[in-house]
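Sequence in, structure out.
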Amino acid sequence: MKPIFIDKSEIIKRYKPINKYTHKGIQGHALLIGGSYGKIGSVCLSAKAALKTGCGLVTAFIPKCGYEIVQISVPEVMVLTDKEEEFISNINFQILPQAIGIGPGIGQEFSTQNAFQKFLKSNKIPLVIDADALNILSLHKSWMTLLQPKTVLTPHPKELERLIGKWNSDEEKMDKTIAFSLQNDLIVVMKGAPTYIIDGDTIYQNTTGNAALATAGSGDVLTGMITSLLAQSYEPLNAAIIGVYLHGLTADIALPETGYQSFIASTIIDTIGKTYLSLENNIERQELL
């Protein structure tokens, strides 16, 4: 099965330029749920990435221990806290976000697992699932039936293995992921080199990115970017495709200045603006032809 390559032409077809009359109230509201004691940085990265990807409003839902950290680290982000100090035990909020990203730094406490199940039972909002939220799902595979169609999952290879089982070849890995996507009507972002996006039996292969992205927090940033695009009213598949492309492009743009060694997850966030400018310049050139 031949993949569709995610290149400039594919992105330009899907990208929606910003309306010059827009305001924060119509640029989408994203909610990022995650964090636990010692892992609040994950949510800081996701939330800041969501803002830098164009979301009008971003809220973080975290355990109490992260309140000051997030407020100080990312002052543009609003914060809601769980009743527990060190982990999430009850996902309860009164806001109405357009998209939710869950999992970065969330841990696998028993109370967190129960809170995740309760959340999935009632949630109807477009969702991105990452990190330990994926690992919790792999422990309770029957919960897959609680997911809304076209929920976006963003596993790295080990998380994917826990979800679909071991494989003996790249071909078997792809076949099992396609079957998993079809069975559950989910979009799977198979993080790697290259990253693939699986939507049923349709495969998309990203063309941007390099080894610099193999750094702590890179996946948390991607979760924030895709959640942001979902909140801005992109369809789940397009949010995943554009998010992965822009995420990879940050590494291609920044690498000549940073080198591989000093490129970190925050570099991705700092370079998102340049990726958008690059994309918009390509659109302008195409319009002139």
